[in-house]
Specification:
Layout lengths: L1 H11 L9 E9 L4 E5 L12 H11 L5 E10 L11 H10 L5 E5 L4 E5 H4 L7
Parallel strand pairs: 3-4
Antiparallel strand pairs: 1-2, 1-3, 4-5
Bound molecules: tetrahydrodeoxyuridine.
């Protein structure tokens, strides 16, 4: 878990966040143990911004992975983690497309890491 968070923290350094200054990194562990990372990528149109979690998940899916066991997330203004960076609603729904409800979501705070399940963060998820 610490190793996954270290990768999320390293990915945060790649954030492109000139508009908000809020930098986020994520690292997703695939069922075979492979790890993919992502950062937030902002856009002048604001709405085209992509969150770090989705960048990581989309990179993994584009590489052929469809099953994940955990994701680590960290973020903060200027890359300083002052609070727990909870994943936004869209990212929770994207996670739910590929992750079972018991998937662990690790979120860095200033001094520790909190772990939730996807079920805790997205009860009653939308499914077709
Ligand atoms: N952001 C993420 O990368 N992940 C989240 O779950 C919430 C928000 C990013 C988007 C934007 O670039 C910045 O944080 C401020 O909203």
């Amino acid at each position: 878990m610490k190793e996954l968070m270290d990768k999320a923290r390293a990915a945060m350094a790649m954030a492109y966040a000139p508009y908000s200054g809020f930098r986020v990194g994520a690292a997703v562990r695939c069922a075979d143990g492979t790890v993919y990372t992502g950062c937030n990528i902002e856009n002048a149109s604001y709405g085209a911004t992509n969150c770090a979690e989705r960048t990581a998940i989309f990179a993994a899916v584009a590489a052929g992975h469809r099953s994940f066991t955990a994701i680590a997330i960290c973020g903060g203004h200027g890359g300083v983690v002052e609070d727990y960076c909870m994943p936004c609603g869209i990212c929770r729904q994207v996670l739910s497309e590929f992750c079972p409800p018991d998937t662990h979501i690790h979120i860095a705070g200033p001094t520790d890491i909190r772990t939730y399940t996807l079920q805790q963060l997205l009860p009653g998820r939308f499914e077709l």
